[in-house]
Design brief:
The protein is mostly helical. It is built from 17 helices and no strands. The longest helix has 16 residues. The relative contact order is 0.13.
Length: 269
């Protein structure tokens, strides 16, 4: 199968104006093809993402959203994993695996709510989150319920700085860290991607799925970290060692297509 077959879809769907449209396009495609064809398409998409091909990064983020939040697609992951194993695609196996976080919070590590929120019910905290101003949002940095944090992530006053403070906290609940995968506008930001991948309390599958978007220098750092899951170290090291890995956007469609064609062809040999 030529890279140009799915490559054309990457350029077309990756440039759709809305994230949900990109997700829907991928959902329809995967529903119509076999597991081996799905794996081949995922491989082409990942190659495009790590080579910064036009349209590939937003479409790759749509793919991550799809496999994280679509129950019908999640039911296909086992078949995709088997197809990836049979085809020898180790990279796709990294992306479809589901290891736990390297660390889990102990009960005595759970963070205490802000004093202003300690006596409030869940519903009251949700209401307070919706009505907070930018200064008031700081009270939710130690919130333990993902439903409340999801509201804060959608709040118009929430900033990148606030998000990094939340995602960099240690210890931090894996469920809290996972909320960013439900809000595409945050996961699309390089600062958020980097912070997520370097927190040892994040579920390893989340870090694995974001690694192809990180700069090589950060991948090298992650590969050496003793705080992160071994699979995260391995995949980061593998990506950092690849010759066909771009830290900046590709200059032309044809240049990417030619390089990706060569890489995928060599993987079939």
């Amino acid at each position: 199968m030529s890279v140009h077959v799915f490559g054309s879809k990457i350029r077309l769907w990756g440039n759709l104006p809305e994230h949900k449209m990109r997700v829907a396009s991928l959902e329809r495609y995967f529903a119509a093809v076999s597991a081996p064809t799905s794996v081949r398409a995922i491989e082409e998409l990942v190659v495009g993402a790590r080579m910064r091909a036009p349209g590939a990064t937003p479409l790759y983020l749509a793919f991550v959203d799809l496999i994280e939040n679509n129950w019908e697609i999640q039911a296909e992951l086992h078949a995709w994993r088997r197809a990836a194993f049979r085809s020898g695609s180790r990279e796709i196996s990294y992306l479809l695996t589901d290891p736990d976080a390297v660390r889990a919070m102990d009960p005595d590590e759970e963070q205490q709510p802000h004093p202003d929120l300690q006596e409030l019910t869940l519903g009251e905290r949700k209401s307070r989150a919706r009505l907070s101003d930018s200064k008031g949002l700081d009270r939710f940095l130690t919130e333990s319920d993902p439903a409340v944090i999801r509201i804060v992530l959608e709040h118009p006053k929430t900033t990148v700085k606030w998000m990094i403070r939340l995602l960099a906290r240690r210890p931090q609940s894996a469920d809290i860290l996972a909320t960013v995968f439900q809000v595409p506008k945050w996961l699309a930001l390089p600062e958020i991607q980097s912070t997520i991948c370097q927190n040892p309390y994040v579920r390893a599958r989340h870090a694995l799925r974001i690694l192809p978007l990180l700069p090589r220098e950060e991948l090298q750092e992650i590969s050496r970290s003793r705080e992160l899951h071994g699979l995260v170290n391995e995949y980061a090291a593998s990506l950092a060692a690849m010759q066909n890995y771009a830290d900046f956007p590709a200059s032309t469609d044809s240049a990417w297509a030619d390089d990706a064609e060569a890489e995928l062809s060599s993987s079939d040999a």
